Amino acid sequence: MVQKRFYNIEELSTILGKSIAAVHGHLARKQFDAVPPPMKLGRRLAWLVESVDAWIEQKALQAAAQSEEYQNFIQAAPKKRGRPTKAEVKARSAQ
């Protein structure tokens, strides 16, 4: 039988690069976009190693997608601000 491995809050805080108090704060506010959801083992909180790895992988994919979206936004031509000129109004009405 394969034993399941769990992280405790100290290990999770080290992996995420946050303090234990910050992890507790995210959990109290139920901000599961900042920390993975825990499970209770008795009175303690624990995180299954596989679920933490999957959560981190999901966050990495989301960050890559957002970065790609941002790059596309930056490369797009900027919209002209202000009122259109008479020539632009004529060109639009001609279309």
Q: What's a concise summary of this model?
A:
By secondary structure, the protein is mainly alpha-helical. Helix content is 56%, strand content 11%.
Note the main attributes of this structure.
95 residues; mainly alpha; three-stranded antiparallel β-sheet; 4 helices; 11% strand
Q: What does the model show?
A:
By secondary structure, the chain is mainly alpha-helical. The chain is 56% helix and 11% strand. The protein has four helices and three strands. It has helices at residues 9-16, 20-28, 49-75, 86-94, and strands at 6-7, 39-41, 44-48. A three-stranded antiparallel β-sheet has the order 1-3-2. A hairpin with a 2-residue loop joins β2 and β3 (44-48). The radius of gyration is 24 Å and the shape is elongated. The relative contact order is 0.10.
Number of strands: 3
Strand order of the largest sheet: 1-3-2
Beta-strand content bin: 5-15%
Question: What is the arithmetic mean of pLDDT?
Answer: 91
Described by the principal axes of the CA atoms, the overall outline is: elongated
SSE order: EHHEEHH
Helix content: 55-70%
**Estimated radius of gyration:** 24 Å
What's the layout of helices and strands?
Elements: E1 6-7, H1 9-16, H2 20-28, E2 39-41, E3 44-48, H3 49-75, H4 86-94
Antiparallel strand pairs: 1-3, 2-3
